[in-house]
Amino acid sequence: MSPDAPKQSHWCNVAYWEHRTRVGRLYTVYEHSVSIFYDLPQGTGFCLGQLNLEHRSSTVQRTRGKIGYGILLSKEPDGVWAYNRSEHPIFVNSPTLDVPNSRTLVVRKVMPGYSIKVFDYERSCLLRHTTEADLLDGPYDPNSVRISFAKGWGPCYSRQFITSCPCWLEILLNNHR
């Protein structure tokens, strides 16, 4: 590739977390889709099983074992989709899944074999102009999606915050940055 050739820009970065600790570096995604899996030979993608962390709790170890085939994240013309390829549910929170100007956190449960549009580009543009700053508790990223493997969080769960979940992803979208 010549130095004058345009560089392909990434559409997202993926961070893997265990409770409150980020494990490994950000994984930058250039292709239109990416597999995020645990330890199984799934071709190319982000293999969470290769990320090392000393002193991993038994809860995290059990949950990591449930990730299996994991998810496929796909950038489509209408937004970003997550396909649950695991044998266990995933739980998703995104600004475009939330009820606008509401203090309630919406976390969607996605069963194995199902998919969900985790980020809607059109809705995101509308939300950027309607979000009230007084309703936000702490830092807020309107271009971030959070996905937990096997464990839910929020008002309907014993875990109130995603940082209480053993294994989760933060998808940092590059579409409006």
Automatic annotation (TrEMBL):
* Keywords for the protein's UniProt record, in alphabetical order: Transcription, Transcription regulation
Q: Note the Gene3D superfamilies from the entry.
A: 2.60.200.10
Entry GO terms, CC: heteromeric SMAD protein complex
InterPro entries the record matches = Dwarfin (IPR013790), SMAD-like_dom_sf (IPR017855), SMAD_dom_Dwarfin-type (IPR001132), SMAD_FHA_dom_sf (IPR008984)
Query: Transmembrane residues, as ranges?
Result: none
Mind telling me which Pfam families this protein's record contains?
MH2
- Where does this protein have coiled-coil stretches? none
**GO BP annotations, alphabetical order:** anatomical structure morphogenesis; cell differentiation; regulation of transcription by RNA polymerase II; SMAD protein signal transduction
> GO molecular function terms here?
I-SMAD binding; transcription regulator inhibitor activity
Report the protein name in the record: MH2 domain-containing protein
